[in-house]
């Protein structure tokens, strides 16, 4: 019978034997750098000051960055950080667009209202 290991030797669990990670090693390899910025401040500001639904998505994405990083999913953590930033930006842009549209509607409404009242004579 052929063994993939020497049965007379003790198992080498701590040094990566049997496909395991070495003690203290990272599952996805060593991280390329520090943990990415989770953009939580921007997500909260976007939620409070801008568009609520898009800001909530940004908060959910930003809170998952640290969890993914701790689990060793460095690419997933970077992707979540990028998506949190993207959703915060979209929240801010949509808020600006909505406010510009509201101002345009009010200006048109008052121009029509004032134009109609100016054209009628009270004499």
UniProtKB/TrEMBL annotation:
<protein>
    <recommendedName>
        <fullName>CD225/dispanin family protein</fullName>
    </recommendedName>
</protein>
<feature type="transmembrane region" description="Helical">
    <location>
        <begin position="87"/>
        <end position="114"/>
    </location>
</feature>
<feature type="transmembrane region" description="Helical">
    <location>
        <begin position="40"/>
        <end position="60"/>
    </location>
</feature>
<dbReference type="InterPro" id="IPR007593">
    <property type="entry name" value="CD225/Dispanin_fam"/>
</dbReference>
<keyword id="KW-0812">Transmembrane</keyword>
<dbReference type="InterPro" id="IPR051423">
    <property type="entry name" value="CD225/Dispanin"/>
</dbReference>
<dbReference type="Pfam" id="PF04505">
    <property type="entry name" value="CD225"/>
</dbReference>
<dbReference type="GO" id="GO:0016020">
    <property type="term" value="C:membrane"/>
</dbReference>
<keyword id="KW-0472">Membrane</keyword>
<keyword id="KW-1133">Transmembrane helix</keyword>
């Amino acid at each position: 019978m052929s063994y993939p290991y020497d049965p007379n030797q003790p198992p080498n669990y701590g040094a990566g034997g049997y496909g395991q990670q070495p003690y203290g090693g990272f599952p996805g390899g060593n991280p390329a750098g520090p943990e990415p910025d989770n953009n939580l401040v921007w997500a909260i500001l976007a939620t409070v000051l801008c568009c609520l639904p898009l800001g909530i998505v940004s908060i959910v994405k930003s809170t998952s960055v640290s969890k993914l990083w701790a689990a060793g999913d460095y690419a997933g953590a970077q992707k979540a950080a990028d998506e949190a930033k993207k959703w915060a930006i979209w929240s801010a842009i949509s808020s600006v667009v909505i406010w510009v549209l509201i101002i345009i509607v009010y200006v048109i409404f008052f121009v029509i209202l004032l134009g109609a009242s100016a054209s009628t004579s009270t004499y």
